[in-house]
Amino acid sequence: MLDVSLALALVALQIPDIWTTNRILACGGRELNPGVRLLMRMGSRWWWPKVAIAVIAAGILVALNDPVARVTLILLNVVYLAVVASNFRQLARCRPRPRRHLD
Fold first, then answer.
1. Which segments cross the bilayer (predicted)?
2. Where are the domains of the chain?
């Protein structure tokens, strides 16, 4: 049960990560993760494969039913918590880009 909860938490952490990343990008920020930058080349729905990867990875780790898999889930959750916290800190310093007027 703990593994399932950890897996669900990992998947749920994708939501604030994606939301804050999109807001930071709108303010002129950039994505630092090269893997996610590659996904962003797909267009505005870049986050779909990101979530799919998280769901698949979490499912595999739960299915392994192994102590190492549990530790991996814990570490991934800690990393994503740190990423989301960092994103919120960056977002607090973010100023929206001025809109361009087509005159």
1. 47-64, 71-88
2. 2-90
